[in-house]
Amino acid sequence: YTEAWDADKKSIHVMPDTPDILLAKANSANISHKLYVQAWEEAKKKGYDMRADAIPIKTAKASRDIASDYKYKETHEKEKGHYVGCPSAKDDPKLAQAARAMALQNDRLYKKAYNDSKTQIHIPADALSVQAAKECQTLVSDVDYRQYLHQWTCLPDQNDVIHARQAYDLQSDNVYKSDLEWLRGIGWLTEGSVDVVKAKKAQELLNERLYRTRPEQLKFTSITDSPDVVLAKTNAMQLSDV
């Protein structure tokens, strides 16, 4: 009896243009993330065309140039007023004299002309002294005098060869760093250098305490028998209730 009704309940037909179906589709499109970012994804696939003369590009370049010029002059602005003495080392007589004395005492500059002229010596290849030296070298040469029977070769993976290489590396490192041992523990104090003296002179010029003396530091003693003090004492005695 109820078989036909049960079969009819399973076959439900809803028209696609009903208000509920249309409302559900609209809500689904509104909350869909894929549809929300679809236009942005398509715009990214097309790329972009930014011209060099575009207003944002020109603005960014101008801002970069302004920031670069500000950073370039920032150190100069901070160091204004800290220079004491001559504008350059050449204008200072003491610094010029010290530079001249250093140049005179410099051994490299003293021997520069000699070292340059050492390599400009030309000796003929057929000179008697050169020929005699070659013959003497041939006579005393161990290569022509001695004929070796066999040259022994060692494999690179032998234990004695590896041990010799390690010992050679250790010895070479010690010899390489031996000239720096006497420098260990030696420091240098900046007291008396040009920059420290300049900073001290600038500090003295900018010191407010040395520039002026405060009134409370001046020693002042009032005169007890001056007319003003005597008059004040008399008025105080007359007005005193005691």
From TrEMBL:
Extent of the signal sequence: none
UniProt KW keywords: Actin-binding, Repeat
UniProt entry tagged with the keyword Magnesium: no
Protein origin, superkingdom: Eukaryota
GO molecular function: actin filament binding
GO cellular component: a single term: Z disc
Pfam assignment, any one: Nebulin
GO biological process: cardiac muscle thin filament assembly
InterPro entries documented for this protein: NEBU/NEBL (IPR055297), Nebulin-like (IPR013998), Nebulin_repeat (IPR000900)
UniProt-recorded name of the protein: NEBU protein
Protein source organism: Pomatostomus ruficeps (Chestnut-crowned babbler)
Lineage: Eukaryota, Metazoa, Chordata, Craniata, Vertebrata
